[in-house]
Amino acid sequence: MATTKDFIIEQIKKSIAAHETSSPAKNMGKVISVGDGIVKLSGLSNVAMSEMIEFKNKKGSVRGVVLNLEEDSVGAIILGDYFEIKEGDEATASGRILEVPVGEAMIGRVIDPLGEALDGKGTIEARTFYPIEKIAPGVIARQSVNQPVQTGIKAIDAMIPIGRGQRELIIGDRQIGKTAIAIDTIINQKGQNMKCVYVAIGQKESKIASIVARLKKHGAMDYTTIVLASASDPASLLYIAPYAGTALAEYFLDKGEDVLIIYDDLSKHAVAYREISLLLRRPPGREAYPGDVFYLHSRLLERACRLNKEHGGGSITALPIIETQAGDVSAYIPTNVISITDGQIYLEPDSFYKGNRPAINAGLSVSRVGSSAQVKAMKKVAGKMRLEAAQYRELAAFAQFGSDLDAETKAKLERGKRLSEILKQDQYSPLSVANQILIFYAVINGFVDDVAVEDVIQFEKGLHQYAETAGKETLRHIVTSEFNEELENKMKALLSDYKSTLQ
């Protein structure tokens, strides 16, 4: 017969067997050393590359990202204030790759690379998160570039056109108008059904404040998000900024929408990555950049694409900006990005200081796919214009020697001067494609030959005003119709009527 003691022991055993522990296993480690935004950790045996980790201290928690997996330690960058992290602090792996909030709520806001608001308009409620690193769509998912991105800048839309899904590099020395081209392009997307993401890497906050004010003035913040990693932010935030911006762009891409993303600029991004890599004790290579600096930008820019209809039909058009030193396009980072992109817009200082703005060098600039996205009338007019511009450059260099020139050469030089004048354009004044085609047609067909060079800009402004009232139907046909004899006759009649009003 069982005693009371045996009965109690039996009941305890049953209770223990029935009890379930719900405490999950945690992957934890300890800080070995910390400094300059880089932390070395022991433990974390099952952590993955780019996995988020969390440091807890008395003042709260700070996030980090794993970048180095070594035999006996883990190297990570800290996304935030690293001064509160001390040797011996605990770090917990989250089990998730670094991801950022995305969604419609981001439109019209200025955010940091982690999705936190910087514009003082309150917190952003986002329910969707995207990983900052993602494998680019394969060849099968893509389709060819055949729709234009109108920048509103005459020299670009005619000679270096950009298509939806293209990657076009803007390259040049500092302070000669690279950002100006990017901002004008954003302003020109009003009514074009295009979302815009402007990623500012290492820029002064005062400069971004003026850009935001300008975009608001033109109504462009209604479809634009600014991702800001300012010059005062740690290198870790500068490093993840372009990837975070691309994650936001991919949210709209997945919805079948068109997105324009600008990286301003990737030179500062490469410098931030070099700083991180050297602190993590990775071996330096050319110009002290790590060996994988090419992959740093190639995996970013390959995510810009145009998807086919089976995959949603959206597109991401990328305009990376690279700053050169004294016009040296053969430096390490410029050559890397030139080889990744589908063409480049090269801005030269000499042209800028002569007053040619935008200071685009049409000889060194190229678009490898955009010409297939031009409207038919622009393709027809721009081909002849590009030829005339090239001939003028050669003749102008020859004419410097002061030898006697025949009448035909003089006429070509005079027309070239007027063409150069037409390609000048004020900032924040993008032009519609129909108006661009009309003025280019006027120049290459001799309608401006009898206008004095200094009066060409005034002639152009007057033509656009006249066409908006008296030639609305012709402007509509320029964009929608085939470039045939009937359209040419309409354009000639409009130009002749305008010229008759000047006499």
Question: Main attributes?
Answer:
single chain, about 500 residues, eight-stranded mixed beta sheet, six-stranded antiparallel barrel, 15 helices, about 20% strand
Task: Walk me through what this model shows.
The protein is an alpha/beta fold and 503 residues long. 39% of the residues lie in helices and 20% in strands. The chain has helices at 4-18, 154-159, 178-187, 205-217, 235-254, 266-279, 293-301, 332-340, 349-353, 376-399, 407-422, 433-444, 456-470, 472-480, 485-502; strands at residues 28-35, 38-43, 51-57, 60-69, 74-79, 90-97, 99-102, 110-111, 128-131, 169-172, 194-203, 224-230, 258-264, 315-323, 343-347, 366-367. The strands form three sheets. It has an eight-stranded mixed sheet, sandwiched between helices. Strands 1-2-5-4-3-6 form a six-stranded antiparallel beta barrel. Strand 3 (51-57) and strand 4 form a beta hairpin. Helix 5 crosses helix 6 (266-279) and helix 10 crosses helix 11 (407-422).
